[in-house]
């Protein structure tokens, strides 16, 4: 597959746009400025479409320059499985409960063997015996930094469950995002297995559930059209924008969330993949095999050029993980260049 090559950090469309902007008559009138801006934006839209074809499935992108409000998008209203990017919404509801005095970051939580769920993270392998306590702060770090699914379901329970998260999103007028299941239930539906009653769960029980190739194939087909636990790129960036602007969380809570997102250890080949070394990125990834490959968060532009909230989702794909990750990296770099060099209006 032919790879996208950037020259001196700038894609071909952007260099063309800069040549236009540097022509003698570019700044003569507001009208000519608008024309050049429109040309660059059109080229950017075409570039997003071209890069997205590398993803092997439907791709959605939404990005907004938070200081100016300028936006660029591809399939912004299409719903995609959120996978672990759903943890941003869970964190918002959890931190809201802390703001309301119902919890504290220092609240200690018993971690029981029945809390240990499959998927990414370390709790399942390290804490299989009873008698462990972790603080809400510890669990939040595990949920965001290493995407631990056990920590996520514990925090989802403390936050009031999916219904409470959805109510918070409705209060914030975030439309196009649906939070419906625990992570363990989502994974069970993806695999086509039936969970036993929660009081029968033991450490490692999930791996012993009966799976058949036929059942999993049918489950994947159903999952691909399931509207539960999905988001449009526009909805995710709307939530990110409201977090950043202090509309979703108070300043102290906002800083807690941005700090842990800034230390996210997963998906270094996605949004961060082709950005200049040292670029400040606070993000959260999401992965469900070839079913969902996501990355959402904030990019800080250099030279006080502002910040970008971005969401990139790839739905069911025929490409391998490396190609899907690289598609997100190329799209993110194109967005970075666009907002860094496109003049504010």
Describe this structure in words.
- The protein is of the alpha+beta class and 345 residues long.
- It has 2 domains: 12-80 and 231-341, Beta-lactamase, CATH 3.40.710.10; 85-224, Beta-lactamase.
- Helices cover 43% and strands 13% of the residues.
- It contains 12 helices and 9 strands.
- It has helices at residues 12-21, 30-52, 86-99, 123-126, 136-145, 149-158, 161-171, 183-191, 213-224, 233-244, 251-262, 321-341; strands spanning 59-65, 71-74, 80-81, 108-111, 132-135, 230-231, 281-287, 293-300, 307-314.
- The strands form 3 sheets. It has a 5-stranded antiparallel sheet, sandwiched between helices. A two-stranded antiparallel ribbon has the order 3-6.
- A hairpin with a 5-residue loop joins strand 1 and strand 2 (71-74).
- The chain is globular and about 60 Å long.
- The two termini are 38 Å apart.
- Mean pLDDT is 88; it is low at 1-33.
Describe the SSE topology.
Blueprint: H1 12-21, H2 30-52, E1 59-65, E2 71-74, E3 80-81, H3 86-99, E4 108-111, H4 123-126, E5 132-135, H5 136-145, H6 149-158, H7 161-171, H8 183-191, H9 213-224, E6 230-231, H10 233-244, H11 251-262, E7 281-287, E8 293-300, E9 307-314, H12 321-341
Antiparallel strand pairs: 1-2, 1-9, 3-6, 4-5, 7-8, 8-9
Helix pairs in contact: 1-2, 2-12, 3-6, 3-7, 5-6
Number of strands: 9
CATH topology of the largest domain: Beta-lactamase
Order of helices and strands: HHEEEHEHEHHHHHEHHEEEH
Question: Can you identify the CATH superfamily of the largest domain?
Answer: DD-peptidase/beta-lactamase superfamily
Radius of gyration: 21 Å
- Work out the strand percent: 5-15%
